[in-house]
Design goal:
Length: 215
């Protein structure tokens, strides 16, 4: 029997919050764990009754009344460390994207995504993956390629190329084809760069590398 994914939403726009609720309830493998218009209300509910809410995936808007949604990420991660957070926002500022990733979100999508894309993103992060809106991936890549890498960059040239391809949203098999490498070799480069950057996924690798000026 397929396990149902419990999804909690934090979105201040009433119409869009209802749309998200309808989207989740229309998926056969998802259930709405909770829906909140303010970050403070969501945090309070998680503090009081986390065992009942039990969210596996949290959809978080950044533009919330009172406090920026970014500020809730560390709090939510502490309250429900097993939950995956997807930022779902209108904000395409790549600095916000990188900051959210640095704080541990598993996905960052713009609100123009389709219902199917929301479903796929929820399923992807629930399985341990990461998702970044392709339009934001291109912005991140522009940052990656706009600066000079320092002399003490621990990443090899191939590792940097693999990281750039990952930031663009390519799967490892596609990267292997693009760089004319074997899948095994790409996988090895990925593991090596994760170890060097002390991260566990591509989103964190991109954010860490940019923050440290490595690429």
């Amino acid at each position: 029997m397929q396990q149902v994914i419990r999804v909690l939403t934090i979105e201040d726009n009433t119409a869009y919050r209802q749309s998200l609720q309808d989207t989740i309830e229309a998926a056969p493998d998802m259930v709405l764990a909770g829906s909140f218009g303010r970050g403070e209300d969501a945090v309070e509910a998680l503090k009081e009754d986390c065992s009942s809410l039990r969210p596996r995936v949290i959809l978080l808007d950044l533009h919330l009344p009172g406090r920026d949604g970014i500020s809730f990420i560390p709090v939510i991660k502490q309250l429900v460390p097993h939950a995956e957070i997807i930022v779902l926002t209108q904000d395409d500022n790549y600095l916000k994207t990188l900051e959210a990733i640095r704080l541990g979100v598993s996905g960052y999508l713009l609100k123009t995504v389709s219902i199917n894309e929301i479903w796929n993103a929820i399923r992807e992060v629930e399985q341990g993956g990461n998702v970044i809106d392709p339009r934001l991936s291109r912005l991140v890549l522009n940052v990656l390629t706009s600066g000079e890498a320092p002399d003490d960059n621990p990443l090899s040239e191939r590792e940097r190329q693999v990281l750039e391809q990952l930031a663009m949203g390519y799967a490892k098999k596609e990267i292997a084809d693009n760089l004319q490498l074997s899948f095994h070799t790409v996988n090895r480069y990925s593991e090596n760069l994760y170890k060097k950057l002390q991260v566990s996924n591509v989103a964190a690798a991109v954010a860490t590398a940019i923050r440290k000026g490595l690429i």
